[in-house]
Amino acid sequence: MKIDLQTAKQLLLSGAVVAIPTETVYGLAAWLGCERAIASIFQLKGRPSHNPLILHIADKESCRKYVRALPAGFAELADAFWPGPLTLILPIKEELIPALARASLPTAAFRVPSHPLTLELLQTVQPLVAPSANKSGTPSSTKPEHIEHDFGADFPVVDGGPSLHGVESTILGHDDGVWYIARLGAISPEELEKVLGYTLKILQKVKSQVICPGQLLQHYAPEAHLILSEKPFTECPRRSSHVVGYGDRHYAGAEKVYILGNGNDPVAVSHHLYDTLRRLDQEKVTAAWVDMAIPENGLWKTIRERLFRAAKR
Ligand code: TXA
Ligand code: MG
């Protein structure tokens, strides 16, 4: 059910969960001041309680109240990428953030989204905790229809149109004086490195501690079985397959081709990624061959990672 911003504000302040648009993917939002609503997010998504939520704030100043110390490089990153698809994991004053929202960690993840409707919402209700608006494990929602599919036609959604980037924010953590990538996302490592001036490691663990619990779980996966291949389609043993591929390539003999965008346009490909994976399920496709002959740098790195995870059931 599409709702306007005024209704969204009232619902959030009264303890309801509302789907909100961001420039990456849609989020399932609750106000940090209402623990009951935060608990409902976990229930609605079927999300394990050890997977913490991102706090969405209106501007970089708004995280100061919650944070114990701001690491070197914070100001440069925030000035370069906020509002925008960058999430920063920061050490917090634990008493100010309910343990449920941060999975009892001594840190919390913060981001300032750039979608104008959500930025306006955050001017009056913040912080909003918001995971991606999908059932745990499945592809994120990039259109209001996806939310209606996952949570029912009556679920309140602020319609902000199709999500611009189509993949989630890049998450950075900080350890021993340097930032590292905890989750690849809409901002490429190269863009971050230009601002920080050093090469960023992509880490799963720091000092044997898991740093981004959501990265360990099954994620982004449609029902359809995805067969990833770097080889040309001419070498595919079952040429009658459904194909997930690129508009500027030919897949002679394929039963149906689902086009992500052109093979030289990672922005278009990420924009269409989850919608395409969801279409496979809508059309009851049980298996699809995915063209993985794509570069490994820039935004392609994120697209590759999402496809690998989508194929891993
Ligand atoms: O683009 C995005 O980031 C979207 C939009 C809605 O903002 N949100 C999103 O949220 O992708 P979610 O919950 O689907 O993914 C958040 C990830 C999870 O993998 C979680 O484990 C990690 O962030 N995370 C959250 N807080 C953390 C913390 N304190 N330490 C480490 N990882 C954290
Ligand atoms: Mg998610």
Structure explained in plain terms:
- The protein has 313 residues and is of the alpha/beta class.
- The protein folds into 2 domains: 192 residues, DHBP synthase (Alpha-Beta Complex), CATH 3.90.870.10; 86 residues, Rossmann fold (3-Layer(aba) Sandwich), CATH 3.40.50.11030.
- The chain has 8 helices and 14 strands.
- It is globular and about 60 Å long.
- The structure holds threonylcarbamoyladenylate and magnesium ion (MG).
- Magnesium ion binds next to loops.
Descriptive keywords:
Rossmann fold, binds magnesium ion, four-stranded parallel β-sheet, DHBP synthase, eight-stranded mixed β-sheet, binds threonylcarbamoyladenylate, 313 residues, single chain
Give a short overview.
The chain is α/β, with parallel strands linked by helices. It has helices spanning 5-13, 35-45, 74-81, 116-124, 144-151, 189-196, 266-282, 299-311, and strands at residues 18-20, 27-31, 54-56, 86-91, 107-111, 128-129, 170-175, 178-183, 205-206, 209-210, 225-229, 242-245, 256-259, 287-291.
Topology:
Blueprint: H1 5-13, E1 18-20, E2 27-31, H2 35-45, E3 54-56, H3 74-81, E4 86-91, E5 107-111, H4 116-124, E6 128-129, H5 144-151, E7 170-175, E8 178-183, H6 189-196, E9 205-206, E10 209-210, E11 225-229, E12 242-245, E13 256-259, H7 266-282, E14 287-291, H8 299-311
This protein binds threonylcarbamoyladenylate (TXA) and magnesium ion.
- State the order of secondary-structure elements, H for helix, E for strand: HEEHEHEEHEHEEHEEEEEHEH
Number of domains: 2
Q: What is the residue-mean pLDDT, rounded to a whole number?
A: 95
Name of the CATH homologous superfamily of the largest domain: DHBP synthase
Bound molecules: threonylcarbamoyladenylate, magnesium ion
Kindly state the percentage of residues in helix.
25-40%
User: Please, how many helices?
Assistant: 8
Shape: globular
Low-confidence runs of at least 5 consecutive residues: none
Could you tell me the strand content as a percent range? 15-25%
Radius of gyration: 19 Å
- The name of the CATH topology of the largest domain is DHBP synthase
* CATH class designation of the largest domain: Alpha Beta
Please count the beta strands (DSSP E, at least 2 residues each). 14
The largest β sheet comes out as:
8 strands, mixed
User: Which structural class matches the secondary elements?
Assistant: alpha/beta
For the termini, the CA-CA separation is: 31 Å
